[in-house]
Design brief:
By secondary structure, the protein is an alpha/beta fold. It has two domains: 1-52, Signal recognition particle alu RNA binding heterodimer, srp9/1, CATH 3.30.720; 71-138, 2-Layer Sandwich (Signal recognition particle alu RNA binding heterodimer, srp9/1). The chain is built from two helices and eight strands. The strands form two sheets. A four-stranded mixed β-sheet has the order 1-4-3-2, with helices on one face. It has a four-stranded mixed β-sheet with strand order 5-8-7-6, covered by helices on one side. Strand 7 and strand 8 (123-127) form a beta hairpin. The termini are far apart.
Length: 138
């Protein structure tokens, strides 16, 4: 099984460019109505315009805010430091600053995270690989 998250947005192409820059991924489809973002030819997320039904009906209501309330778009990335620099370059709003999870490194993923918002208001978590933060603090 492999997750394939889809978010609904007003501007698919601008959102695609933002995620491509942040995640270092590529367009696998392109266009103003729908996008597939891929990394090493693996689908990592989809972007769909709110008002296009593509024969399946609306994927959401753009008036219901905040978008993605209770859902986090979580990406484990190998180049965590570079991705943090890209998030700064994109002037992403920080929800939860760079931190270690868990803080003392005992149990849990023992990695680094930053929580930001994309231009549409969706919360995006960038996380280094599990165990990357090193041994627990003594």
């Amino acid at each position: 099984m492999r997750p394939q998250p889809l978010i609904a947005v007003a501007d698919v192409e601008a959102t695609s460019r933002w995620y491509q820059r942040l995640l270092g991924c590529q367009s696998g489809h392109g266009g103003p109505e729908y996008e597939r973002l891929v990394s090493d030819d693996v689908l990592i997320m989809q972007i769909h315009r709110w008002d296009v039904d593509h024969d399946h009906g609306a994927v959401g209501n753009p008036d219901d805010r905040p978008y993605g309330n209770g859902v986090l778009l979580w990406f484990e990335i190998e180049d965590f430091d570079d991705a943090m620099a890209r998030a700064t370059e994109l002037q992403a709003e920080i929800v939860l600053a760079h931190h270690r999870n868990p803080p003392d490194g005992r149990g849990g993923p023992n990695h680094r995270e930053i929580w930001i918002k994309d231009p549409n208001g969706y919360v995006v978590v960038l996380a280094s690989p599990d165990g990357e933060a090193g041994p627990p603090a003594e």
